[in-house]
């Protein structure tokens, strides 16, 4: 009997899948993906201030993950809003910033507790800024661009919670499945359960990163999986659909492993370029503005592409007047660009901004 896309998928199979998850092709791709991710982890550990990676790079992951859901903002608006504390920006930008807030929350939570349904709920609530919970009302259906139903997730809060409980057990099971393969499986299962009225895609993509951290494959959640998904959006959704309708686990796992390999290499290359850029700026400031040079000052202007006087004050580098002089000096030698928006003055690290948004 063919799969009925319009009927709730309450018989969604529990994990682990009955299918073969360690075919020759999967194991070969898993080796390549693990190698690329290990290289990224090693390089990220060399960053003198990892706050730069967690703040600026994860903001791009937040932007791209939200873009998958047609929540679009400009890089200028995003980084400017992130530099401000007043929250005055457009709704789409606020939603992207909430994604990163949710990622930060999950990352911090992992220090005290593992991935659980309760943490899933907290992440979704932060993304949506509502008291969102497990779906209790039927009627949810996923549609394509033509308005046709392509999938109807399970209905009934008890059914959904049972499947989430099974997902938790799979996540924490002590088995011999490669963690990257398990990540691909748990991502499909979470999206198929579709536990929330909204925010499932973004929550699921955050869970990917948190799972890699929990498994010790990453120390900080910096991986641009959303960049790969956007570039291969049709294959992403087709892969999910083929698992549901044809149990094609191999195709799906291979897609996700390629995503990890590709984005690990891209992020590795980007971090290398940022490190080289930091070294170039450090040498330049020492040569052209030696009286204000400090390692901490260079790190602050690379922590965020839009620097403000208050950032230097908060980092205990200088009082306001001296901090202003420092930033004006850096603008004078071309390291930063002074930019005024209303009453607010920013000092933009154009080279960093260009690198983060390329």
Features:
3-stranded antiparallel sheet, Fic-like fold, 358 residues, two-stranded antiparallel sheet, 2 domains, Arc Repressor Mutant, subunit A, mainly alpha, ATP binding
How many helices does DSSP assign?
Answer: 15
Query: For this structure, what is the CATH homologous superfamily of the largest domain?
Result: Fido-like domain
- Give the mean pLDDT: 91
Report helical residue fraction: 55-70%
CATH architectural type of the largest domain? Orthogonal Bundle
Q: What is the terminal-to-terminal distance? A: 48 Å
Classify the secondary structure makeup into a structural class.
Answer: mainly alpha
> How many discrete domains?
2
Q: How would you describe what is shown here?
A:
The chain has 358 residues and is mainly α. It folds into two domains: 24-269, Fido-like domain (Fic-like fold, Orthogonal Bundle), CATH 1.10.3290.10; 289-356, Orthogonal Bundle (Arc Repressor Mutant, subunit A). 61% of the residues lie in helices and 5% in strands. The chain contains 15 helices and five strands. Strands 3-5-4 form a three-stranded antiparallel sheet. A two-stranded antiparallel ribbon has the order 1-2. α5 (117-128) crosses α8 (200-214). The longest helix is centred in the C-terminal third of the chain and has 40 residues, at 249-288. The model has no long low-confidence stretch (mean pLDDT 91).
């Amino acid at each position: 009997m063919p799969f009925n896309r319009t009927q709730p998928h309450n018989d969604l199979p529990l994990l682990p899948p009955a299918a073969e998850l360690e075919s020759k092709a999967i194991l070969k791709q898993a080796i390549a993906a693990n190698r690329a991710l290990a290289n990224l982890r090693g390089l990220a550990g060399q960053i003198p201030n990892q706050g730069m990676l967690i703040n600026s790079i994860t903001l791009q992951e937040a932007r791209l993950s939200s873009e998958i859901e047609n929540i679009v903002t400009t890089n200028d608006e995003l980084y400017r809003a992130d530099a401000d504390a007043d929250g005055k920006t457009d709704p789409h930008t606020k939603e992207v910033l909430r994604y990163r807030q949710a990622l930060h929350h999950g990352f911090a939570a992992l220090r005290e507790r593992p991935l659980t349904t309760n943490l899933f709920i907290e992440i979704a609530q932060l993304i949506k800024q509502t008291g969102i919970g497990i779906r209790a009302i039927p009627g949810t259906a996923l549609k394509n661009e033509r308005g046709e139903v392509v999938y109807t997730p399970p209905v009934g809060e008890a059914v959904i919670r049972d499947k989430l409980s099974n997902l938790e057990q799979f996540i924490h099971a002590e088995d011999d499945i490669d963690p990257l393969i398990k990540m691909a499986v748990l991502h499909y299962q979470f999206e198929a359960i579709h536990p929330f009225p909204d925010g499932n895609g973004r929550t699921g993509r955050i869970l990917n990163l948190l799972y890699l951290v929990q498994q010790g494959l990453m120390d900080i959640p910096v991986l641009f999986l959303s960049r790969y998904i956007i570039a291969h959006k049709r294959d992403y959704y087709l892969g999910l659909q083929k698992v549901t309708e044809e149990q094609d686990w191999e195709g799906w796992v291979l897609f996700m492993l390629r995503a990890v390999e590709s984005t690990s290499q891209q992020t590795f290359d980007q971090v290398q370029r940022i490190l080289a850029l930091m070294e170039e700026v450090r040498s330049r400031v020492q040569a052209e503005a030696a009286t204000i040079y400090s390692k901490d000052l260079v790190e602050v202007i690379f922590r965020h592409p839009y620097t403000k006087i208050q950032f230097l004050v908060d980092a205990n580098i200088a009082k306001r007047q001296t901090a202003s002089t420092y930033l004006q000096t850096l603008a004078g030698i071309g390291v930063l660009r002074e930019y005024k928006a209303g009453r607010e003055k920013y000092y933009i690290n154009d080279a960093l901004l260009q690198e983060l948004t390329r």
